[in-house]
Structures are given as C-alpha cells and as structure tokens.
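Entry:
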Amino acid sequence: MSIFEPDFAGVIGRTWHDSQPWWPPELAPPEGAPNVVFIVLDDVGFAQLGCFGSDIDTPHMDALAAGGLRYNNFHTTTLCSPTRSCLLTGRNHHSVGMACIAEATNGFPNNRGRITKRAALLSEMLRPHGYSTFALGKWHLVSAEAQNGAGPYDDWPLGRGFDRYYGFLGADNNQWNPDLVYDNHRVEQPASPDDGYHLSADLVDRAIEFIRDQQSAAPGKPFFCYLAFGAAHAPHHAPREYIERYAGRYAKGWDQTRDEWLARQKELGIAPAGAGLAPRDSVVKAWADR
C-alpha cells in the first residue's frame, strides 16, 4: 500500500452482485499535528532583531521569542537559493543541487539551479500526511529559463508540494511594483504605490487569506505556511514611514552601533561574555574616517 495510492480493498466480481465497492479512507493528519509557519527574512542578520540585541523595533518578533526558543548557532550559506534549499529539505545545499543561486548553474549535479527531485521539500513531506501547504513571497528555487509562461512548472512552488503560491520567483523584485505570480500564472498587483501598496503587506494579507479559506472549509486541518519576505534584499524598498521612524538614530555610525548590539547580546545571554566582533571588512572605512 502507498500513502499516495492505496490498494483497492473492495471486491470486483463478474457482475455487480458479486462486487463490493470500497472508498479509501480520507487522509488525516496525526493527532495533535501543529500548524507550522516559516518566516524568512532575506539578508537580515539575527542581531538585527530586537530579541537578539538590536535597537531596531521588532515587537511582534520579540513577543514570539518571549514565548518560545531563541537559537544562536544557526548557519546560512550566505546566499539566497542555497539557504532556502537547506531550510526546506534539511540537507546540504551541494547535495540537493543548489550550490549557488538558481541563476548560476555550472553544468554539474551540485549546481543545477533547482532542487533535485531526489530530495523532498517540507511541503512534499507534510502534504501526504494531511497538511495544507502554502508558499508566499520570494521563491528563488527555479532556474531563470523556467520562469516563463510555458514553464516547465516542475520547480515552481505548486510543482514542489505547495497547494497555493503568491509571490515572485526570482532573486530580487521591486517592492512597490512587483513581478507577481499567483499559483502558476502571473497577475497584476492589487493596488498601486499611490494607494499605499507595498509587497510585504500584500504577502501577509494573502497568507491570511489562504489560511482563512482553508480553515473555513476544513476547520482544524493543520497547515504549513512558508512566508519569505524580500524587502530586506536589494533593492531596499522600505516604506517612507519606516525610514522616518529611524531618522537620526544611527548618526552615531556603524562602529558604535555594532559595539552596542554585541553588548546587548551579552546581556541577553545570546552571545557569550568573551565574544568579540569580527574585524570590519577592509573596504569599509571606520565611521570616523569616512
């Protein structure tokens, strides 16, 4: 028996008199299966969250951290696509075919611009066990050649275990005028920048919509929601009201700022007391010498 196609358990006779119909049991998640939400912030260091020592205001993240666990030894691959491949498969990026970003394939198995079908994504692991699966935001796990209206769609989110998708497929995007994909087709943005549109808020609204639609039809059914923002990746398209909140706060410069953040991390127990800062990159001048 397969969880995808169970063997027929009825009887097929010569006529309907000798036959016994049978319907496979409905797929049901394990008892107490939790909802899972992954929030990915592109190019954001963990020290830039308030709960990890920053003086940037992140009240909702701080509230989540206060009621959960904070880890201080998570490693990324320093690049977008490889990090996503590790996060979604639990495996090394070279072993799943994503050694570099999706646009930089090299013709060898470790760098195909896509995650090999030999490696399952979390969405592909959870859906056969009764989960609904949603992906929103930056994908960056499909080759540039396949990001068109003819596909192939195998490596788009719906081809890799997600029921619904809303976001953008490539590396970066205009946050006010994004190249948007809804499921397997491109769509126009729902509002204009003049009306206050920004992609980050749109992604959150769409995530709420996906979950609301699913829960209204199947109350209590667990879901996996992968929400990957792109606003902290270049180009930095922060709404004006957010920029204005921090006017003058960092006039002290990057050297003093990172000293203060490390000190705060030590106070919080995020960094050990003897930790020091990595040397400043040689191409970056000291704030006082800029």
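Residues 87 and 122 are 9 Å apart (CA to CA).
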